[in-house]
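Appendix B, example 12.
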Amino acid sequence: MLSMRVFIPLAATLLLAVSPALSAPIRCSDDGEGGACVWGRVEGYDGAAVQIRGLTIQIMGIAVPSRRELCQDKTNKTSFDCAKPARKHMGELLAKGVACDILDVSGGAIWGRCNVATGDLGQALVAAGVARADKGGFYDTEQAAALSAKKGLWAPATLIPKDWETIRKKSE
């Protein structure tokens, strides 16, 4: 069977995303922050971005280590992909869908703030210690709490990338 891909311009895709005929457990609110909102089932994700309706939306206000960065578990003496905890936790949070307010389109990327069934996606990832807050961003309070509780990658038994270690040392 022959398959064909149809490319829809960004404006048309955003119009489709807010069509009332489509249904999903998580939807955009009328008082969204951005100029547009995209919602529905997630087609893909990587820990710092989600793909919905063919659009890749970077989660504004968070940073996740790259897949190339390795962390070490001092207790088990094993290495692991530092981004894996964020991808795992994000997968659990995205199970019922997502709604993302588009806040910015710059540098070839679409930036948004996303909500899942339990609330703000970026906030949940930072609070779990699997993502870090961008400097001066939305989630400084959640990062401080995750650091003090030694959650996720901030756990003392985890050796983390140098830039994350610098943040951990500043918080002590």
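The chain has one domain: 10-171. The longest helix spans residues 84-93.
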